[in-house]
Design brief:
By secondary structure, the chain is α/β, with parallel strands linked by helices. The chain has a single domain, classed as Alpha-Beta Barrel (TIM Barrel). Helix content is 50%, strand content 11%. Helix 10 packs antiparallel against helix 12.
C-alpha cells in the first residue's frame, strides 16, 4: 500500500489509443502497457487526463482497470486507479467496482461542473475515502481545473482527510515553492514532469505523473534517477527540455489544443509505442504530420537520456 512516505518517483500514464471510429484499440493498449512495464518506471496510473477519463463508458473504464491491474501485479509495479470523473456519483461507483483489484491508491478530482466550497471539498474527500475502504487517495489538481487550490488548501484538506496522501499540482514560482514547503507536509507532492528537477532541488516535489514519461517512459525514469545522484546535471537537462517545450509543445497549447492533445503529441513524437495522436470526439488532435516534425526536432534538441529507448 502506498503512503506519503513511499509515494515518489516518475510515474507513467496509460494513454488511450483510438481507432478511426473512436473505439479503443485494446490490442495497442496492451502493447503500450507491456512497453511501459519494461521501462524502469516507478509506477503506472490509469485514467489521467491523457487517458481521457471524462470520455469513457463505464464498461470501457472497467476493462482498462482490469487489464492494468493484472499487468502491473505480474510485473510487480505499483499502480494507481484513476477514479476521476466530473460526476461524484460516477467517481464513487468506479471506486466501488474496482476495490477487488486492490490498487495502491485511487486518484480523484473534485467534481467540476460547479466548483466546491471548502466544506464541500472535505465532504467529498471523506466520502471518497470511506468508499475506498483503506486504499489511500491522491488528489489531481493541475493548472487547468476550474478551482485551482492554493498551498494552504492542501494542508487543510490533509488535516481533515488524512487518507489523502498525495497531490498532483502545477508548480509555479519561488513564492509557491516557499508556501508548499510549509503546507505540503504529510503529502507526496507531484508536479509537472518537465519541471521535476526544480521541484526536487527546492525540496518540495518527490515525483511526477509525468508528461516526460509520455514522451519516453524509459528516458523519464533515467532522468529521475539522475536527479537523485546529480541534481545539478539533471537541472541542465531540464533547461534543454524547457527550450524544447517552448519551441515545439507550447505553441500548440497557445493554438488551443488541450492537455491530452499535447500528451499524445509527446507520445507520438517520442516514437516508443503504438499511441497515435487521436482524441475522442469532440476534441481536436494534432496531426501526425505535425507530430512527426516535433519528433525530428526532439532528436536534435533533447539529450540522449531523454530520447533513447
Amino acid at each position: 500500500m502506498l503512503s506519503a512516505a513511499n509515494l515518489k518517483g516518475t510515474w507513467a500514464t496509460l494513454l488511450l489509443p483510438l481507432n478511426k471510429d473512436d473505439s479503443i484499440d485494446f490490442g495497442c493498449l496492451q502493447e503500450e502497457l507491456d512497453i511501459i512495464c519494461g521501462s524502469g518506471i516507478y509506477g503506472i496510473y490509469t485514467n489521467g487526463t491523457a487517458g481521457e477519463f471524462y470520455n469513457q463508458s463505464e464498461a470501457e473504464f472497467d476493462r482498462i482497470q482490469l487489464l492494468v491491474s493484472g499487468k502491473c501485479r505480474k510485473a510487480n509495479i505499483p499502480f494507481q486507479a484513476g477514479a476521476s470523473h466530473s460526476s461524484p456519483g460516477i467517481c464513487l461507483g468506479r471506486i466501488k467496482r474496482t476495490l477487488d483489484l486492490k490498487p495502491d491508491a485511487y486518484q480523484v478530482i473534485f467534481p467540476d461542473w460547479l466548483p466546491l466550497t471548502n466544506e464541500e471539498q472535505v465532504s467529498f474527500l471523506k466520502k471518497t475515502a470511506q468508499k475506498a475502504e483503506g486504499i489511500p487517495l491522491v488528489l489531481y489538481n493541475p493548472g487547468h481545473v476550474k478551482a485551482v487550490l492554493h498551498p494552504e488548501d492542501f494542508s487543510r484538506l490533509h488535516n481533515e482527510a488524512p487518507e489523502l496522501i498525495g497531490i498532483k499540482v502545477a508548480a509555479k514560482g519561488a513564492e509557491w515553492f516557499e508556501q508548499m514547503r510549509a503546507h505540503g507536509k504529510g503529502l507526496a507532492v507531484f508536479i509537472q514532469g518537465h519541471r521535476l528537477a526544480t521541484g526536487i532541488k527546492e525540496g518540495v516535489a518527490v515525483g511526477a505523473y509525468s508528461n516526460i514519461a509520455c514522451f519516453n517512459p524509459s528516458g523519464a525514469a533515467a532522468w529521475y534517477r539522475l536527479m537523485l545522484e546529480d541534481i545539478e546535471e539533471a537541472l541542465l537537462i531540464e533547461k534543454e527540455i524547457a527550450v524544447f517545450f517552448e519551441t515545439c509543445i507550447f505553441p500548440f497549447a497557445k493554438a488551443g489544443y488541450s492537455d491530452p492533445a499535447l500528451d499524445k503529441l509527446l507520445a507520438f513524437a517520442g516514437g516508443w509505442g503504438p499511441v497515435n495522436t487521436r482524441l475522442r470526439f469532440p476534441y481536436k488532435w494534432i496531426s501526425e504530420n505535425d507530430a512527426s516534425e516535433v519528433r525530428r526536432k526532439a532528436k536534435k534538441m533533447l539529450p540522449e537520456m531523454i530520447t533513447r529507448f
